[in-house]
Amino acid sequence: MAELPIHRAALVVITVPSLEDIKALVSILREIGYDAKIMAVARSQKDAVELERLGIYRVINPYYFAFEEIVKEFVSHAGAKG
């Protein structure tokens, strides 16, 4: 990764599924002196909390957003039958 022109990037987005791999990539980025924004995709709320503790600029949990939409749909259907 040190050979990539990463220092020119204003934002790095990490989408690998493994929390440990994300943490390793963040560590490498910081070791090579990357100091711009890092965004990561979490696979659970627990992972999201851990990534936020690393100081990642933005953590996205698509499963959480999907869950919110499912709940909204359920509530709208449950209300219509009541």
How is this structure best described in words?
The chain has 3 helices and 3 strands. The chain has 82 residues and is of the alpha/beta class. The longest helix has 20 residues, at 62-81.
What is the terminal separation in angstroms? 57 Å
Figure out the total of helices.
3
Structural class computed from helices and strand pairing = alpha/beta
Rg on CA atoms, Å = 17 Å
Secondary structure: helix percent: 40-55%
Q: Outline the biggest β-sheet.
A: 3 strands, parallel
- Which strands sit side by side, in order, in the main sheet? 1-2-3
Whole-number mean pLDDT: 90
- Poorly predicted ranges (pLDDT <50, ≥5 residues)? none
Q: What percent of residues are in strands?
A: 5-15%
List the secondary-structure elements in sequence, H or E: EHEHEH
Count of individual beta strands: 3
Shape: elongated
